[in-house]
Amino acid sequence: MGGERLGSAQHHWLDGGPIGTASFSARAASYLTMTHLTRRAFIVAVAALTAGAAGCSDPVGVEGGVQIRLVNNSPFAFDEVEVNFSAQDESYGSLAVGAATGYRSVRLAYRYAYVRVRSGNKTVVQQPIDYVGETALAPGRYSYVIELTTLDQPFAAITRLQPE
Fold this sequence. Notes:
Mean pLDDT: 75
Number of strands: 8
Helix content: 10-25%
Strand order of the largest sheet: 4-1-7-8
Order of helices and strands: HEEEEEEEE
Strand content: 25-35%
Radius of gyration: 29 Å
């Protein structure tokens, strides 16, 4: 069974002759050489992939994918704006009245997202229930335009999508 015969003191390795024979040594050397080459090939492949990813100008590695920025079309300055794009969290930081952030690459986005804005001691959240029936955005540039009229409602529909 895989190296030992029942009722015998002889051990076998790699379905071959007894340990200590010339055929055992040749098989062991061949196996160890293949293991070493396989390990070396794996290390080279990982190094190549890492080097390729490091050279990407897009932080997510999706050139020409979906890019989203935020535009504050509200009468309130925001101390912090966070967006969850179903598979990715992004913190956009502070956002002045009438200002826009830079574009961020997003792996997967829909026409709406979880958005949390904080202004002073007030926080307002747009909380999607789910994305059932929604279609993912096609590659391109989009703006989530934040349009709040009050900070007194903790949950609200606060964004609209604007294709660029």
